[in-house]
Amino acid sequence: MAPQPSRRPGFSRRARFGLFIGYLIAMLGALTGVLLLVTAHVDPAGNNALRAALGDIVSPLSSAGRTAVRGASSLGSSILAYVDAGSKNRAMLAEVTANRTKLIAGENAIHENERLRGLLRLAQADAAPVIAARLISSTGENSRRYAMLDKGSLHGITSGAPVRSVDGLVGQVVQTGAISSQILLISDSGAVVPVRRVSDGLTGLAVGTGDGLLSVRALVAGAASFKPRDVLVTSGAGGLYPPGIPVASVISVNHDGVVARPLADPEALDFALVLHPFSVPLPTPTTITAKPKKRHKVEE
Amino acid sequence: MIFSAGRSQLDRQPSLTKIRLVPTASVMLASLMPAMPMIATTPLMPPVALMLFLAWRLLQREIWYPWAGVALGLFYDLSVKQPPGSAMMLWTVAQSLIALFDQRALWRDYWQDWIISALLIAAVLSAQLVIANWTGGHTRWIVIVPQIIIAILLQPLVMRFCGYLDQWRFR
Predict the structure, then answer these.
(1) A71, A92, A159, A247: most buried by Cβ count inside 10 Å?
(2) CATH assignment of A131-274?
(3) Is the ipTM of this complex over 0.90?
(4) Chain B residues with CB inside 8 Å of A59's CB?
(5) What is the C-alpha to C-alpha distance for residues B109 and A279, in angstroms, rounded to an integer?
């Protein structure tokens, strides 16, 4: 095929000028893009207003179709369940017998825990969630892992609030529009969650890898590290995420770290609870009452 | 039957608004695809908007204004939740790279179109990852390799679809 005629404006001065302006706008636009990126790098929070506004516009659209898709995806998983029913059945039977003994031990521990708590009068008031919302869409084209909730600042959601589902921790609200909000999933490569192992409280940090999994680092060097099938819950260290929310289970340990899979599968989950940000009570400032010594002499 | 229910089959004038709107509207609709009700844990969805944008450009040389990449890229940024500005810049650069290539090329064929769009898709997606990482992420490049491969393999389909749309808008 011969090349098509090029964009030659001919002798018309007006056409030439129009073309020149077109290229000028293109160059200025690209430069504006670079500038916007620089502001996003310097001030990520301030950059979010535009995006929150567009989220409000598209959220009803996503919300409507979500129901239909949920039906279709559950159909797919039930077909898949038939395929490996036999081997799954054997594995589950083995797991049931193993779990029965653990269950008894667990119930025992719960009773003991209640008794000790009553003893200490630690009435740990579980803060009620702000609101239940539906997860309606997430970005499949982008390397960052954001998802959209169908409730926003009108419903009392604030930026920074942790989000969980029945199964476990989902993520954190990063920006709120009026009727929609964006959450950063824990599998995003910018998300860090302080965790501890359920069985013995070994603490670590779970960092998202961007492909739906987490990479876990133990905080204790040289100690017995994480093993496959360990269950991790939030430790509450550093605030934000309340302690005790299930986060992930370890699936493999290899040379470049411990890989865990989030317990709350965002593809399957539908409703999510937005919680109050957790804050560790600070030590009362009355403990530091030592007066500054006579330094004022220098000023005189 | 010569006369159909609506317009006459003979001596028709295609609607000008349809001719002008179809390319832009197709790219914008494809940009809204991430708003589709699905939750993705891995970046696997091919960037259909970018693929259509390139396909239109390769099909019809003068279809976009020189600044089309700025406008459509900004719209894409906002709907895909990239840091705003990234597609705005990258699409404009991609558009001018094709223009540069067009100045040198002596002929054009199917394979050339595919190779050009494959290179540009890989470059734009990688650059977007670099930008996403620069503004707060830490994703490794290997995570987006499947997405790049899927996009490149799907590009002929998108080009064919684009050709169909092109016929349809003049009908």
Answers:
(1) A247
(2) 2.40.10.340
(3) no
(4) 35
(5) 63
